Amino acid sequence: MVKRRRSYSREFKLEAVALVTEGGLSVAQAARDLGIAESVLGRWKKQFAEVPEQAFPGKGRLKPQDEELHRLRRELARVRQERDILKKAVGIFSRVPK
Question: What share of the chain is helix, strand, coil (3-state, %, to 5)?
Fold first, then answer.
């Protein structure tokens, strides 16, 4: 019997965190009511507390700072490749034919 990992929508996570932060329920009680693990709800609450507007970006989406870091790393790799090509070209063209 294979247990599948459950996935929850961003809206569900936000509502679950709101039950704890605004609704006055404890993490344990809210988790029981929603049928999820206490540790999961605790982790969601922590993620929401760190950066509320960027919490739970979803699959394949990155936080803005991570997205920029990814873009900069790709650009750096491209620039390094161009540099290496130019180095090889200089080496080829600087040879003096005998």
Answer: 65, 0, 35
Identity of the amino acid at 51: V
- pTM higher than 0.90: no
Residue 94: domain span: 62-98
CA distance between the termini of the chain: 75
Contacts of 40 by beta carbon, 8 Å cutoff, 6+ apart: 31
- Other C-beta atoms within 10 Å of 31: how many? 21
Domains identified in the chain, total number? 2
Residue 2 lies in a domain: no
CATH code: domain of residue 34 = 1.10.10
> How far is it, in rounded angstroms, from Cα 72 to Cα 68?
6
Read off the pLDDT of residues 15-38 as tens digits, 9 standing for 90 and up: 999 999 888 889 999 999 999 999
